[in-house]
Amino acid sequence: MANPPDIGGNVRRRRQALGWTLETLAEASGVSAAMLSEVERALKNPTVKLSYEIARALGCSLTDLLEDTRPSAAIVVRAAARRSLVDPETGVARHTLSPEMLRRGLELVAYELPPRTSAGPMVANRAGILEHVAVVRGTLTLRLGEAAHVLRTGDGVTYTPDVTVEYVNDGARVCEFVLLADTSQARRDRT
Description:
Distance between the termini: 35 Å
Strand content: 25-35%
Mean pLDDT: 87
Number of strands: 10
Structural class: alpha+beta
Radius of gyration: 21 Å
Helix content: 10-25%
Number of domains: 2
Number of helices: 5
CATH class of the largest domain: Mainly Beta
Shape: elongated
Low-confidence stretches: none
């Protein structure tokens, strides 16, 4: 049998990252503070049910709780190694800049829009998502449903993508922008 995961250390790290005491976590999870203390110190292994209750209270999945999620001192993503998607018809490019942040509910991407192109309309996203766009170079027209926001180099906007979203470059030069999407509070449809 493989070595058991460091569930206690992961519980402690996640609890402390939230600024919670053992008592706060006990109240949120329904697991006693004494039991949580023993789990964190690796004196007891929690049952699957207790682990699930702890994970739910900490706002993560049971898998997240079982994985060792301590970040390395530095995770370098070289330009040649990043995941990119380039539309063969328009030349619109989307590059994932930090895949490690996805584990924390954050997505950081860079877009390049050639002159007079659009990334195409994207349907409304799940409730609870928050996005921020910052223009690095050029002029971007951000369409949010019926509203249009013109952003120039250095401009930024924060919005909820709960309507159709479209990134448009009406200009004669390339437009580059970064998008930060926070999905940590997104509601998941349960069926």
